[in-house]
């Protein structure tokens, strides 16, 4: 008897601990009021325990339990707005656990919509990218956000600033998008071609459009339409993305667009053009920028499909610095050392550096004068400004390579050696899986004596491979 009582008390304590840990998915919700429709919202307890649901103000809201397998137990319920009065009201929803009497509470506030806003990760779309989701948010007069807009119809309209240009974007249903699934709250709307609180926008051409969102209900005709400007951009880069040039020198840029995972040169396209941010530092003509004064500015890419008022849309740009040269460097490519072998081809590169250490791009207006022994290193080609010499090491020897720009000078010593040859040029060795004794081969240079294989005796015939 005593043991049974103790067991019963333990069960009650465990039940109280379980109920104490149970929570509603929302402690407070804000729902909109409509004259012609009722807005629903689902409350749910995070534990599957038997509850009875009720409300303190049935004229404002109703509560309908959702039963799963039992007509008496429900751990979730649908709250429906019943009032049509266009004023703020509050009701309490209670969920009482049938065995212990523990009560969970949710405050339900109803009010009218005062304004709209749209939530999105970006207001810039890119061509050949997945459609972007745009989701509406509604607020009351105090700036509080409504908990749900499910079941509410919205008008979404795209207006083009210039009817002569192709439309930059289009609406796309979730069912037609290969990147999205249809949200359950929008399934019925999509089936009949109605737009709800969430839509997809897909960029199809570059440009900017105005998206206007309104509530198609007479009781909300006073809510100001929401206007959002969305831009569609192409995936474009400017090469180089950063450059330093001499004053009065020029540099040419390339405009590359990514299409189908490949880069295409569109420098000559009439749709795009370059514009300099600070015209005192540099000027632009076509795809070429010229330094006008010492300083730093940005070269901006403009799209003729974009309206003139949309200058703030961030497109690709490059940073251009106009500076005086501070140092002249020299290097031998591709190995970046000054040792070569007869027959090898190299590039001798002269680089100017700005005071901040940035490498400068030298145009054709200025030149670097160079000098070297052409009998040892033959020049096959060179750039117009002399900054790069392409040639071949001809014969063994040492040559001083020097470069001069204005008052800056640099030099290096190029060492050229005979081409090494190994004899024999081909060796075939036997392999015995049952023997672990190492095989040794003596290989020598064409002009050297026979090598000795470490740990073994001297080879009698230095001109041939010896096997042990």
Q: Can you characterise this structure?
A:
The protein is mainly β and 468 residues long. The protein has 2 helices and 35 strands. The chain has helices at residues 2-21, 187-191; strands at 28-32, 40-44, 51-55, 61-66, 76-81, 89-97, 103-111, 115-119, 124-126, 132-139, 155-159, 169-172, 198-203, 207-214, 226-233, 236-239, 242-245, 250-252, 254-259, 262-265, 272-276, 282-285, 288-291, 295-303, 317-322, 327-333, 339-341, 345-353, 369-371, 377-382, 388-393, 397-405, 408-417, 422-423, 444-445. The strands form 10 sheets. Strands 1-7-6-3 form a 4-stranded mixed beta sheet, with no helix packed on it. The chain has a 4-stranded antiparallel beta sheet with strand order 8-10-13-12, with no helix packed on it. Strands 9-15-14-11 form a 4-stranded mixed beta sheet, with no helix packed on it. Strand 6 and strand 7 (103-111) form a beta hairpin. The chain is elongated.
Describe how the helices and strands are arranged.
Elements: H1 2-21, E1 28-32, E2 40-44, E3 51-55, E4 61-66, E5 76-81, E6 89-97, E7 103-111, E8 115-119, E9 124-126, E10 132-139, E11 155-159, E12 169-172, H2 187-191, E13 198-203, E14 207-214, E15 226-233, E16 236-239, E17 242-245, E18 250-252, E19 254-259, E20 262-265, E21 272-276, E22 282-285, E23 288-291, E24 295-303, E25 317-322, E26 327-333, E27 339-341, E28 345-353, E29 369-371, E30 377-382, E31 388-393, E32 397-405, E33 408-417, E34 422-423, E35 444-445
Parallel strand pairs: 1-7, 9-15, 17-25, 27-33
Antiparallel strand pairs: 2-5, 3-6, 4-5, 6-7, 8-10, 10-13, 11-14, 12-13, 14-15, 16-19, 18-23, 19-20, 21-24, 22-23, 24-25, 26-28, 28-31, 29-32, 30-31, 32-33, 34-35
């Amino acid at each position: 008897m005593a043991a049974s009582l103790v067991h019963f008390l333990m069960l009650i304590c465990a039940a109280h601990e379980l109920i104490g840990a149970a929570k509603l998915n929302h402690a407070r919700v804000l729902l909109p009021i409509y004259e012609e429709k009722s807005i629903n919202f689902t409350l749910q307890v995070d534990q599957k325990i038997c509850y009875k649901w009720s409300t303190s103000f049935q004229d404002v809201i109703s509560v309908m339990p959702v039963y799963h397998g039992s007509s008496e137990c429900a751990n979730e319920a649908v709250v429906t707005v019943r009032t049509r009065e266009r004023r703020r009201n509050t009701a309490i929803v209670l969920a009482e656990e049938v065995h212990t009497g523990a009560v969970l509470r949710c405050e339900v506030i109803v009010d009218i919509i005062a304004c709209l806003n749209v939530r999105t990760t970006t207001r810039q779309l890119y061509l050949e990218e997945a459609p972007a989701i745009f989701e509406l948010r509604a607020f009351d007069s105090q700036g509080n956000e409504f908990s749900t807009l499910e079941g509410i119809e919205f008008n979404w309209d795209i207006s083009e600033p210039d009817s002569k240009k192709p439309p930059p974007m289009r609406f796309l249903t979730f069912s037609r998008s290969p990147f999205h699934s249809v949200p359950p709250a929008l399934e019925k709307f999509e089936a009949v071609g109605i737009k709800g609180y969430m839509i997809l926008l897909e960029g199809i051409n570059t440009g900017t459009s105005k998206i206007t969102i309104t509530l198609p209900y007479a009781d909300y005709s006073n809510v100001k339409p929401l206007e959002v400007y969305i831009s569609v951009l192409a995936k474009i880069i400017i090469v180089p993305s950063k450059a330093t040039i001499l004053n009065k020198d020029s540099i040419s840029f390339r405009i590359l667009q990514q299409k189908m995972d490949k880069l295409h040169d569109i420098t000559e396209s009439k749709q795009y053009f370059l514009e300099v941010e600070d015209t005192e530092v540099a000027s632009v003509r076509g795809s070429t920028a010229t330094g006008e004064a010492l300083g730093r500015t940005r070269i901006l890419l403009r799209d003729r499909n974009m309206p003139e008022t949309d200058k703030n849309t961030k497109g690709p740009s490059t940073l251009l610095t106009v500076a005086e040269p501070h140092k002249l460097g020299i290097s031998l490519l591709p190995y970046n050392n000054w040792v070569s072998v007869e027959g090898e081809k190299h590039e001798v590169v002269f680089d100017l550096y700005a005071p901040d250490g940035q490498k400068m791009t030298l145009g054709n207006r200025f030149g670097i004068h160079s000098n070297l022994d052409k009998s040892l290193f033959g020049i096959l080609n060179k750039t117009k400004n002399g900054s790069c010499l392409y040639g071949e090491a001809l014969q063994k020897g040492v040559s001083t390579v020097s470069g001069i720009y204005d008052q800056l000078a640099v030099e290096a010593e190029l060492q050229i050696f005979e081409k090494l040859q190994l004899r024999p040029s081909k060796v075939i060795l036997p392999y015995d899986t049952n023997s672990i004794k190492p095989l040794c081969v003596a290989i020598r240079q064409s002009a050297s004596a026979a090598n000795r294989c470490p740990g073994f005796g001297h080879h009698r015939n230095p001109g041939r491979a010896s096997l042990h």
